[in-house]
Design brief:
The chain has helices at about 40-45, 60, 70-75, 90-100, 115, 125-140, 155-160, 170-185, 200-215, 225-230, 230-250, 275-295, 300-310, 320-325, 370-385, 415-430, 475-489, and strands at about 35-40, 105-110, 145-150, 190-195, 255-260, 265-270, 330-335, 340-345, 355, 390-395, 405, 410, 435-440, 460-465, 470-475. It is of the alpha/beta class. It has one domain (about 1-485): Glycosidases (TIM Barrel, Alpha-Beta Barrel). Beta-D-glucopyranose (BGC) binds near residues 443 and 459.
Length: about 500
C-alpha cells in the first residue's frame, strides 16, 4: 500500500546503526505471554464478495468497471472477488492447519463490515455472522487467539455513497457496527482494533477515490490543502474511535481495545536546509501525530494547525474533545515497514517535500529498510505518549520477483527472511530500552490482494498460487517457525 503512496512519517529520529542489525540468532528473551502472530485483512483474503448476502464496499466499486483501479495502477484487471478464497470454509480449514503448524499463538483478521451489515446499518446478515463465528471458533479451538480489526479499509458502499467519513453520521454508523461486533464476538475475542491505519484511509484512499470520481489520477501525497479541507473526516474517524472505546469498556467484556497506525518514519535523502528540516517535522506530524495525539493525548497537534491556517476546527463541536479525552485506549498498534524518503523542493509537494531516493538495492516495496530507525521510533513513542502498551500489528516485506521464485514447491525468500529476523531483533532491542511491546504480527500469513496493486505484490510468508489457490510455505515461514520453537523451549 505504502509505496504506491509515497510519503511517510514520524519522530525526530536520527538514523544510527543499531545492534539490531548484527545480532546473532542466539535465543532472545521476550516477555511472558508475548503475542506472536501473523496478520490479514478481510478484503485482501476472503473473496466471496457476492456470496450469502454480503453487501459491496468501496473496493467493490473502485476495482470494477468503470474505475478498474488495479488495472490503472498495474495493468492487471483484477478485483477482490476471489482474493485467496478464504470465505470458502474448506479453504480456511486448510489455512488454519498452516497457521497452527507455524506455531503462532495469535492471528489478526478483520471483519468485513458489509458482510455482516450489507447496507452498513440496519439489517443484519446472519450468514456473515456465522462465517466470523466459524473463523473465530476454529482459531480458538487450535489455541490461536483472534485479534480482530473492526475496520481495515472497508467502508460499505451504501455509506460511502452517503459521504463516508465526511458525513458526521459516520460516527454513529461505526459505533453501531462495533456494538454489533462486540455483542456477537466479544465473548471470545479479547483483543480488538478499531481502525487500521487511519492516515492511509484519509490521505491515500480518500484522495484516490475523490480523484477517481473526477476521472483524474490523484496527486499523492496529499497536500496541506487537502488536510485542511478534509480535516472533518479525520475528526469523525477519531470521534468514532473514542466513542467505540468507551462503549467497549462499558460492556465489561474483559478484553483490550486499541487502534493501529502505519508508523511513518521519514527522512530526507540529502543534507538539507533548516527549512527542509522544518518541513520534515511537519510531514511527520501530519502522518503520525495528527492521528496519534488525539487518541493518546486528547488533542490535535497545534503546531500543525497553526501552520495550516485553515478550517482546521471544521467539525469539532462542543463536547467532542471531552469525548476524545475520556476514551482510554488500551494499546497502541504499530504497522511498520520502512522509512519513507523525501527530497526538498520548496513550494512543491507536502510542505515543500517530494519523494526522495531510497538507497536500497533491491528496493523493498514499502520504503527504505531500516530496523535501527524502528528502534529509535519505538522509543520515541514511549517518550511522547507516556509509555503505552504497544503491539506490532504488522511488519513484513515484499521485494518482487527475485525473492518469490516458486521452484519445486519451494520459495527461497531470503530477503524477506532476513528482514523479519532483523525486525524481530529490533523489537527485542526496543523492549530492552523499556518500550512495553506486547506482541508482534508478521504481514502477512499468505500472499494476498495488495489493494490497487492487485496480485502483483507479494508480502506473504506463505506463497499462494493465485490460479490454483495452492499454498506453499516460504523460507520465511520456516524461519519464523523455528524461531518460535526456540521461544517455546
Ligand atoms: C496495510 C495492509 C497492506 C500492507 C502491505 C499495510 O499498509 O495495512 O493492508 O497490505 O501494508 O502494503
Amino acid at each position: 500500500m505504502k509505496s504506491a503512496l509515497i510519503a511517510l512519517v514520524l519522530c525526530a529520529c536520527l538514523i544510527q546503526p543499531s545492534k539490531a542489525q548484527n545480532k546473532e540468532s542466539k535465543k532472545l528473551h521476550f516477555p511472558k505471554g508475548f503475542l506472536w502472530g501473523a496478520a490479514s485483512a478481510a478484503y485482501q483474503v476472503e473473496g466471496g464478495t457476492k456470496a450469502d448476502g454480503r453487501g459491496p464496499n468501496y473496493w467493490d466499486k473502485y476495482l470494477n468497471p468503470p474505475y478498474n483501479l488495479a488495472k490503472m495502477a498495474t495493468g492487471q484487471d483484477v478485483n477482490g472477488d476471489i482474493g485467496i478464497n478464504q470465505y470458502d470454509r474448506t479453504q480456511f480449514l486448510k489455512d488454519v492447519k498452516l497457521i497452527k503448524e507455524l506455531g503462532i499463538n495469535s492471528y489478526r483478521l478483520s471483519i468485513s463490515w458489509s458482510r455482516i451489515l450489507p447496507e452498513g446499518t440496519g439489517k443484519i446478515n446472519e450468514a456473515g455472522i456465522d462465517y466470523y463465528n466459524f473463523v473465530i471458533n476454529i482459531l480458538i479451538k487450535n489455541g490461536i487467539k483472534p485479534l480482530v480489526t473492526l475496520y481495515h479499509f472497508d467502508m460499505p458502499l451504501a455509506l460511502e455513497d452517503k459521504g463516508g467519513w465526511m458525513n458526521r453520521e459516520s460516527v454513529k454508523w461505526f459505533t453501531d457496527y462495533a456494538n454489533l461486533c462486540f455483542d456477537k464476538f466479544g465473548d471470545r475475542v479479547k483483543i480488538f482494533l478499531t481502525f487500521n491505519e487511519p492516515s492511509i484511509e484519509m490521505f491515500f484512499l480518500q484522495t484516490l477515490f475523490d480523484a477517481i470520481n473526477n476521472r483524474q489520477m490523484p496527486s499523492i501525497p496529499a497536500s496541506e490543502k487537502y488536510i485542511s479541507e478534509h480535516f472533518a473526516h479525520i475528526h469523525h474517524l477519531m470521534l468514532a474511535h473514542a466513542e467505540t472505546v468507551n462503549l467497549y469498556h462499558k460492556k465489561n467484556l474483559g478484553g483490550k481495545i486499541g487502534i493501529t497506525y502505519n508508523f511513518m518514519l521519514c527522512d530526507l535523502d540529502t543534507i538539507t536546509s533548516e527549512a527542509g528540516k522544518t518541513s520534515l517535522n511537519l510531514v511527520r506530524k501530519a502522518w503520525n501525530n495528527l492521528f496519534m495525539d488525539p487518541v493518546f493525548k486528547g488533542s490535535y497537534p497545534q503546531e500543525l494547525f497553526d501552520r495550516l491556517k485553515a478550517s482546521q476546527y471544521g467539525d469539532i463541536k462542543a463536547g467532542d474533545m471531552e469525548i476524545i479525552k475520556s476514551a482510554k485506549t488500551d494499546f497502541l498498534g504499530i504497522n511498520y515497514y520502512g522509512v519513507n524518503m523525501y527530497h526538498e523542493k520548496p513550494g512543491a509537494g507536502f510542505f515543500g517535500l517530494v519523494n526522495g531516493k531510497n538507497p536500497d538495492k533491491p528496493e523493498m516495496f514499502n520504503g527504505f529498510v531500516n530496523p535501527a530507525a524502528f528502534v529509535v521510533g519505538l522509543v520515541s513513542l514511549k517518550n511522547q505518549y507516556n509509555n503505552p502498551e504497544i503491539i506490532i500489528t504488522e511488519n513484513g516485506a515484499g521485494y518482487g520477483e527475485t525473492d518469490e521464485k516458486l521452484e519445486n514447491g519451494k520459495v527461497n525468500d531470503a530477503l524477506r527472511t532476513a528482514y523479519i529476523q532483523k525486525h524481530i531483533n529490533a523489537v527485542h532491542e526496543a523492549i530492552q530500552k523499556g518500550v512495553k511491546i506486547k506482541g508482534y504480527y508478521v504481514w502477512s500469513m499468505f500472499d494476498n490482494l495488495e489493494w490497487i496493486m492487485g496480485y502483483s505484490r507479494r508480502f506473504g510468508i506463505t506463497y499462494v498460487d493465485f490460479k490454483t489457490q495452492e499454498r506453499y510455505p516460504k523460507q520465511s515461514y520456516y524461519w519464523y517457525q523455528s524461531f518460535l520453537r526456540e521461544q517455546n523451549k
